[in-house]
Structure to design on (327 residues):
């Protein structure tokens, strides 16, 4: 099969497009003919050797795929050949390819009428945002939800889901264009953290109370501010560190302000609680059918141009998702 291959750590431009052997299939695994692959922030890290997972060289990056079942392992009973699935690869890589091996337990059937590009755009971003807000953040109707990096993949999904669940959504992003997109997708208020004082604006928008739930996929300086801007009984959701800095927390802030610091790891959640993940998606598919969720794909590239997609992510140019198509 043809695939994007990482032969040495470095920038996306060092990736090559070529022939790569198909991985063998385990008893609980499925081989998908990949039609679309989501490009995610960890893909930019894994090719640089900066991710917690370091596959043996050479390897194929990418972990989020949508496609058709072409082979099933001996113990797979949930799916059959020809089914359309959105899925994570078994290994956490191997997705930027014509074929990928996925774990059957962690796959979700694509609803009738949804195309492969949308499916690849939804799985990780919406799966993460929903799990963060519902199981981890326990967002209630009428509560304030602040989303950092609100026009990114996870961020924009959180804006839409938070709004659909009845939250008062404050979107935080680095440009007015990005904030406009967040507004178009349901944000009630916006903060441009590149030119406005985040702490002051939060005080203004919440009448000094602070926010009830904060979803933070960015970390760094924004997290430092958020750790001082939570309401009593608030939930600060640690989702990621796109800024490149994993912040340190003076733990007395959690005590003094009476909020909870809650870790979110969707990939692990899918492994531990696949049924709950499946139910989350059934609810999201209903909301999608009702027009409450409208995933944004700002750009698609053919598989061989994966480097452009990864550079867009690194250059902070992506709104919503960027997707690779595999014709
Ligand atoms: N915990 C989990 O289960 C889970 C699941 C999925 C993703 N994640 C993590 O969540 C983070 C965001 O993922 P994503 O897919 O939403 O990424 P994304 O689409 O690239 O969005 C990240 C956002 O971070 C902001 N940002 C701030 N500094 C940045 C920098 N130096 N480089 C790039 N972006 C920067 C950007 O918004 P502004 O320009 O507006 O600042 C960007 O829109 C990543 O760290 C990812 O690993 C975690």
């Amino acid at each position: 099969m043809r695939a994007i291959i990482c032969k040495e750590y470095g920038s996306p431009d060092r990736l090559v497009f070529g022939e790569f052997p198909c991985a063998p299939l385990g008893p609980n695994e499925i081989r998908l003919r990949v039609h679309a692959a989501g490009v995610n922030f960890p893909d930019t890290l894994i090719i640089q050797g900066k991710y917690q997972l370091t596959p043996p060289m050479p390897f194929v990056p990418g972990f989020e795929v949508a496609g058709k079942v072409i082979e099933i392992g001996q113990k797979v009973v949930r799916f059959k050949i020809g089914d359309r699935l959105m899925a994570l690869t078994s290994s956490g890589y191997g997705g930027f390819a014509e074929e990928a091996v996925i774990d059957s337990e962690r796959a979700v059937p694509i609803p009738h009428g949804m195309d492969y590009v949308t499916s690849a755009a939804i799985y990780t971003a919406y799966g993460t945002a929903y799990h963060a807000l519902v199981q981890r953040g326990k967002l209630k109707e009428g509560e304030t939800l602040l989303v950092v990096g609100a026009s990114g993949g996870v961020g924009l999904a959180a804006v839409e889901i938070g709004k659909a669940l009845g939250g008062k959504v404050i979107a935080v992003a680095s440009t007015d264009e990005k904030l406009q997109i967040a507004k178009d997708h349901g944000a009630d208020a916006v903060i441009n953290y590149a030119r406005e004082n985040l702490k002051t604006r939060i005080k203004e928008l919440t009448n000094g109370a602070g926010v009830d739930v904060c979803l933070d996929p960015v970390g760094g300086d924004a997290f430092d501010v958020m750790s001082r801007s939570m309401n009593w009984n608030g939930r600060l959701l640690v989702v990621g560190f796109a800024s490149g800095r994993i912040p340190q927390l003076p733990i007395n802030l959690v005590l003094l302000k009476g909020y909870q610091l809650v870790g979110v790891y969707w990939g692990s959640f899918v492994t531990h609680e696949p049924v709950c993940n499946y139910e989350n998606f059934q609810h999201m598919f209903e909301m999608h059918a009702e027009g409450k969720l409208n995933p944004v794909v700002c750009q698609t590239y053919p598989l061989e141009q994966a480097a452009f997609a990864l550079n867009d992510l690194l250059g902070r140019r992506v709104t919503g998702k960027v997707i690779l198509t595999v014709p």
